[in-house]
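Render this sequence as a predicted structure.
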Amino acid sequence: MGRGENSSYPQTNQIHALALAFILLAMNFYFCLCNLDQAWDFPSIKIGKLHQNH
């Protein structure tokens, strides 16, 4: 049983790593899409929000 458990660990780790990499890639891609839309006027939005708060 010990050997079976040991042999299954690398597989699950690989699956977790792949899932994490895929999620990070998807988030990065989504973030880039959002930034392409708002990259030029994001600073002005941020400054506007700061001025509204104070």
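Summary. Residues 2-38 form the longest helix (37 residues). The two ends are 64 Å apart (CA to CA).
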